[in-house]
Structure formats: structure tokens, C-alpha cells
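sorry for the late reply, my laptop died twice this morning and i had to redo everyting from scratch. anyway the thing you sent over, i finally got around to it. pasting the sequence first so we're on the same page, its 495 residues, then the predicted structure underneath. double check i copied it right bc i was rushing
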Amino acid sequence: MKRLSILLIFGLLCPLFMMPSLANADVDPPDEDLEIEDIRAYESVIEDNDQFYLVSYDMGYDTNPTYYNASDLFVIRLMDGTTELYSTTPFPFYDSGFDYGVVGMYFSADDVADLGMTFGVASGYTIQIAGNPTVAWTDDDIPKVQTATFDQWYNGGLSQSILTIRMRAVAQDVETAWNGYYDLLEGSSGEQVLSYDGETYFTNTIPDLLQLCPELFTTTRDVPDIAPKKVVTDSHIAGDDDTFYPVYSGTWAFQSFTARDTYTIITAELELSRVGTPTTDLTVVVTEMGGAWPDLTPILCTGTITAEEISQYASGEWVTVSFEDGYDLEYDSRYGIVAYTSGGSPTAYYTWRGKTDARYVYGMAGYSDDSGVTWTTTTTDLNFIIGADNAKNMSFSQKQAHILDGTLWDMQNLSDSLGISTMWLRSMVWLIWTIVTCVFMAQGVQSTKPILFTFLIMTSIGAPFGFIYWYWAAFCLFMCAIIAIYSLTWEKSNM
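ok and here's the structure:
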């Protein structure tokens, strides 16, 4: 028996001694260049002054290393000079991670303050991908790539919406790079959301994605109680912008758009940069359209952007202009956004950026060389985002139906999956709650009057909370009054 036990232990241990030593196995560097494909930074996504960095990369392997996956061999860092601010590893979901991939780095507002972080090109931050130095690389050739070139620094008022749009594009890029091996996106009520495989991959590479982009998920979400941000209504966001219209004294630029809803415009965000040293404010106005051109009489609303707010980053950054008084835009009507300044020159000017031949189907762009007297249109539409208040306000009932949007009781995803309206679903939830309350009350009272009053009053108070339409609440209150009057009258007539 003792001999059998020794043989059994020996048999179990033998494979361990026979396995190759990973620590001593030489690892070949990538067959092609290790590449950082795209870096984008966003500020104030979940809370004010937080920061999020989104990095796309390509490991460049044709033949994968043996015995390892990418998380064993590589680390991805955000660096401030020689100081590491954040590090993570590739997630080996497809091809052991030795392919195209994405990682995210999130810093809460407290993290930003504790680390003394800044935001923008001036920060000098770099992204680094480097091989694991504890591994024996062939010829001691440890792969490494580092860049300070960011494709976008975004610190406007719509970071979560912009990031969500970008994440959908990234998911499509990853799916394509993986030759469609996984379907990472699926349709949901006209908007693409992450599939089961998409959620699995991206929540592992971006741990805070659920809070960063809740609209990418179909399941019920427990999102932070964040004050609602402005609604993105109309926009044109062409990635990898490669052209621009200059704006300086006498040379103006415009982009027209068609309002896809009735709303109050309160901000516009434009992708801008500064060339040379223009010092005068950039004025942005919203106008009606006189045919194909902006009608500058009257100007509907006006905002200004100072020179200091506009970065000299060559690829441009999103800058928000606020319209203090706002203006009510009408559904399906065309309007123009016009940018101009009183100073500057052909060597000191602002640029409004766009992408060649990336067309915006609801409008057009153009420029004027004579301060808006005559205009010329082009095939390049300019990047813009409209921030709105009172969106979806075709009626008072429609506005009231959106009180709970973005809260725990949003129910949008569930209603979409059931194929019913969100307000109808909320009404059913409140009605069931009311009925359950009345059933419990019926156990302790003999009269139906208190139960009836409870039903009508609970139904009524559902309106201020966004569960019940106001006209239904008003009807219930009216019935309460009728029953009260009838009861008093009937009781007096029988005294």
C-alpha cells in the first residue's frame, strides 16, 4: 500500500518536472511592429472632473508565442514622464490576446486630485506598451512602443454621449479585425448595444464601462445617481477628421442642420483648433436658413468662445459654446451654425474641423470670404454637436414621460425588449404596486371606501414621480372628489 502511494505521488509529480520551464523559454517579439492605433481622452464622463483614456492597439503577431497569452507578456501604461499613472494588461479573449484590442483607464475625480493630473495636450501624457521584463525575450529584444500623440482630447459637456458613440465604432472595429469571429454588437430598438460576447470582452478590458456607457447594455443597470446631462439631439461626428475651414476676419464658416425634434438649443460643441496667435473671441450664432445659405437676419442665439479656450492641438478639440437665452427650434426645420471672428489673418486663425467626403445627410457646410454676404458650399461637413433642453417636448405629456430617464426607474431597456412604451410599462408597475397595497389594506378593514380612496390617491401621486400621465392622475383626483361629495351627501340624506 505504501509503495502504491509513492508510485501515485510520483506519477502525479512527473508531468510537472517534464513540463517546459516558462521562465526559461525564449519569447519572440512581434512579427510586425507593435502599434498603438488610437488614443482618446474624455473628461467629466461619470462625474465632474473625472478622466477616461481609451486605447486601441495591435500586437502585431502572425505566430503567437507558445505557453503564454498576451496578459502574461505585455503591460499597457499611462505615463506622466517617467511616472506611471495607470497600468493594465491585454485581455486574452480572442487569439490569446495577440491581435487587435482595446483597453480603458478610468480615474475618478478623487483620483485626479490625488495624482495631481491635468487634462489636454499640455499634460504631456504618453501611452506605453511594453514587454514583460521578467520574461526571457529572444536576443533580449524587449518590445516597446510609446507615443504622446492623442487622437482626441474631449472635455465638453457631453462626454458620456460622445464616448458611447465612439465605443460603438470601436466595437465594430474590433469585430472586423477579428474577422467576425465574435458578434460584439447587436441591434436594440434602433440603437446598437453590446452582445453577450461584447459585454464579456469590453467589461474585462474596461472595468468601469457599465457606468461610463450605460446605453451600451441591454440588461437592467445599477448606474450612479448622476445629475442628468444635456441631451444630444443633432450632431455630425466624423472620426479621423482630415480637413478644416479657416475662420478669421472676413472669412466665416457655417454648418447647417435639420432639427430632428422640437427642443430648446442651449449649447453647441464644435471641433476647433487654433493656428498662430489669434486673440479675438470666436463668435458662434444660430440662424435660420435662407435657402442654401444662413439667414443672418435675425440671429436666433449667440455665444462666444475665447481664444484661450481653443487648443493649438493640430487635430482639434471639442469646445462648448453656451447660448445663454437658448432658442426653441422646430422639428424638421433647417438652421445654420455660423462661426466668425473680428480679428486674425491667414496666418493666425481658428479652424473648424471635418472629414473629407464624410457627409451629413441633414445639412451642408460652407464658407464666406466676405463676412457672410455670399457663401460657397463644399463636400466636407463640419463636426458639431447640439446640446438641448426640453427635448422630446412635442407635448406636455411627452415631457412628463421623461422624468425618470437616466434613473434607476428608467426602464427603457426593458420596455424596448418587451416591445411596449416605457410610460406604459411604468404605469403597469405603479398600478401593480397600488393593487398590492390595497390588497394588504383589505385584510384589515371592512369598508371598501378606504381601499377605493387609497387606490385613487396612490394612482394620482404616481404622476409627480413620472410613473403615471398627469391627465390620468387628474382623472383619479376628480373621481376622489366625486366619491367624497357623494358620500357626504348620501350620509346627510340618511341622517
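The chain has three domains: 26-216, 232-389, 412-493.
thats about all i looked at so far, will dig more tmrw
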